Known about the structure:
The protein is an alpha/beta fold. It has a single domain, classed as Rossmann fold (3-Layer(aba) Sandwich), CATH 3.40.50. The chain is 44% helix and 12% strand. A six-stranded parallel beta sheet has the order 1-6-5-2-3-4, sandwiched between helices. Strand 3, helix 5 (90-104) and strand 4 (108-109) form a beta-alpha-beta unit. The longest helix is centred in the C-terminal third of the chain and has 16 residues, at 169-184. It is globular.
Amino acid sequence: MKLNRSIFRFSYLALQRRYVFPKIFLKDINDLEIDVLRSHSIQGVVFDIDQTLSLPNENKINERVLNSFLRIQSAFKVCALSNLELAMSSEAAFSRGLEFERLYNLRVILPKLKKPHPSGFRLARRYLNLKPPHIAFIGDRLLTDTIGANYSRFYSIQVAPLDITADEPTIRIFRRFENLILHTHNFFHPKSSPTEE
């Protein structure tokens, strides 16, 4: 019953323009300028992992965005907030999160209640020890990342997925629904690479 209420609430949020639109829409984090974040008083950055930093089920940051991640990490407090367990077992998700922490000194938060639920965003805020308006969230999904970030009053940045062909079938269905929401609001975003057929 509680889960059904949550689904209804965030489906309702998806219909409201103030929660749907990211503050910035980019092809990937390579296009993110440090000075732009600083101009908005951003002091911390929270990353999604799958399709934002890494391809699904890979235990490393994709080479295409690694240098940009390191650049952002050197300029701000950072952590990651991920729904990894939705795509794998809890043990595998925990192990994968530890690998990111070991390789990149990146704290990975795996909340019990998945994005867009605000509990994970609260954990990230507490870890960074910053107020929401001073935190940017970067992710590739509208229904989990952008809506969750906007609802939690983070500065939302949405990127195109690193490789849309690497998505699981269920995620592809959700992306079509997300694109329909954006088109309904006459909002368009950069294409992923490679492009979706």
